[in-house]
Amino acid sequence: MKNESGIPDLTRIVGRIEDLPTLPRTFLRITELVNNPRSSAKDLAKVVTDDQVLTVRLLRLVNSSFYGFPQKISTVTSAIVLLGFDAMRNLLLTTSIFDLFSNRNRKGRLRLEKLWDHSLGCAVGAKVIGNYLRYDKIEELFVSGLLHDIGKIVEMLFLPKDFTKVTSMVESRDILMVTAENYILGYTHADIGKFLAEKWNLPPKLESVIANHHQPGLSERFLQETAIVHLADILCRALNMGSGGDRKIPPLDREAWEILELELSTIGPILEEMESEFEDVRQFVRHSP
What we know:
0% strand; 289 residues; mainly alpha; Hypothetical protein af1432
């Protein structure tokens, strides 16, 4: 479904979806406060503590191995002060996303769980790579990795006929999902993910990573971040963390590798660290209240 210029008309495509989820009001209120320079940790804490589930999640996360703080954090205000406003917003977004798509398709539950595990593996990989590069906003990388394939989730749950056509070609020809999408549909999960990021009013950096994780060179302003998620996607596939919907490992983009300036000798330790962290993070996100 393309317009006269040959570009996929995603407005019409996604317009076929009647109940595409929106982000929770609590999260939107938190985003407003984070973007307001006059907001204090107490202002944010009040909104979070009004939501019991978010409160428990935040305290569990701040006390998890994801951060490894030496002391136990017992109050939401303390957690916010330690994490910072942006980090708190990003990490609450991480768990909120799972709620939006949970229990929508019990028939395809196993495939959905594998897609989520792949996304979590990519999130962990992006975090680990970011630490090696001393990137200062690790939570942004984690969320970018988690959401890089959100378009596949949307396809599966809301465009099932399209998704079935794609997966049939993937299985019969043993090709990448993105290749089959381009061939059959004329648009990809990255296109849908970009549209969803716009609908949710997510930060431009996150939108760019989602849109360009298969072609990092197109990301321009956010080339490093997109390159990190691109590599993380490849590494978590190599480790068989979940399933990206196909059995292939995408080729490594040379420009992305050069931008990262990683030594080849670091890949082994990065893979080991990804494996050790994956299960901890999986337990937190998948089993949050």
